[in-house]
Task: structure prediction
Amino acid sequence: RLKAVQSVQHQEIKEDLSHLTLAELENDLISFGEAHMGHTFDQAWSDKEWVKFMTSRYSKSTKPAHMRFLRYVELKIEKMEAEMQQHPVKPKGRGYAAPMVAKAKGRPKSEAQPSHDLLQPGDQAETYSQWEMDDGV
Result:
């Protein structure tokens, strides 16, 4: 008999909120929990982690305060999705994603410089002695 009474109460408590609008709900005050108690629904919306927690944890709640907030979240998401469809985010530039650029692979030192630029041991000594002579050393 208890289940029958609870089932009837559950059905009575779950009121229809489909008539509520975003404008009507955004200034409702949160009357549950601790993190956003007393904040408006609109203020709490900025805490994305809390909203995510709230919607996942209380999605089946029959408490009117929870249900009103969940309705607000539903309407807010619908509004944002509609705005995204009207004004899709356009990629920068020509409308294409930036091409992937491969990193240059390292090469052994023998390949890093052309062989004709390498100095021979005698050339280096001559260049050094040339500098010494220019400086008057």
User: Anything to note?
Assistant: The first helix runs from residue 2 to 13. DSSP finds seven helices and no strands in the chain.
